[in-house]
Specification:
This protein is of the alpha+beta class. It has one helix at residues 22-67; strands spanning 4-5, 12-13, 73-79, 90-93, 100-105, 113-117, 123-124, 129-133, 137-142, 156-162. A 5-stranded antiparallel β-sheet has the order 3-10-5-6-7, with no helix packed on it. The chain has a 3-stranded antiparallel β-sheet with strand order 4-9-8, with no helix packed on it. A hairpin with a 7-residue loop joins strand 5 and strand 6. The longest helix is centred in the first third of the chain and has 46 residues, at 22-67.
């Protein structure tokens, strides 16, 4: 039987003269398992709270800038879902109609914009893109598939838009 216990988890500690009891080993493992689970739950809750806080701050900041009509730049990213075509456009809600938009691929081998939109000049590797600016953003589609629409499944895309 153990004579001592650890400070934090109160695990059984044995001296050379102590006898070992299986129940004490089981209590130690149960205490460790409980502590690990509690730490995991605490981390998950902290991550969720952090994400919610970041999203809340971004929403409040965006709304304040929009209310003051100060929004000039928007940036972000999206993950392609393989949709394409006129009935399934790629849409970005920016809070304003863009005067210029750059879309970059998350592919590390491509270090240049794969699409640039401006109302007076559209630069893209293909002429099969149809753009529709809106009061709060822009949408586009391709009749040639998700690759040309910048919507390849599981591909990350990043954008930078100016008012």
């Amino acid at each position: 039987m153990s004579a001592n216990k650890s400070q934090n988890l109160k695990l059984h500690l044995w001296e050379p003269q102590d006898d070992f009891l299986r129940a004490e080993f089981n209590e130690n493992f149960a205490a460790i398992d409980t502590a690990v689970k509690a730490e995991q739950v605490a981390r998950e809750q902290a991550i969720k709270a952090g994400r919610a806080s970041i999203a809340a701050v971004q929403t409040l900041a965006s709304q304040a800038l929009a209310d003051a009509n100060l929004t000039r730049v928007a940036f972000g990213g999206y993950c392609g879902d393989n949709s394409s075509g006129e009935t399934r456009p790629t849409t970005l809600e920016l809070g304003f109609p863009p005067s210029i938009l750059f879309v970059f691929s998350g592919n590390k081998d491509i270090d240049y914009p794969i699409m640039v939109y401006a109302p007076t000049a559209i630069v893209h590797s293909s002429s099969f893109i149809h753009y529709t600016p809106t009061e709060t953003g822009i949408s586009w589609y391709s009749i040639k598939g998700p690759d040309l629409q910048m919507n390849t499944v599981n591909c990350r895309y990043f954008y930078l838009a100016f008012r």
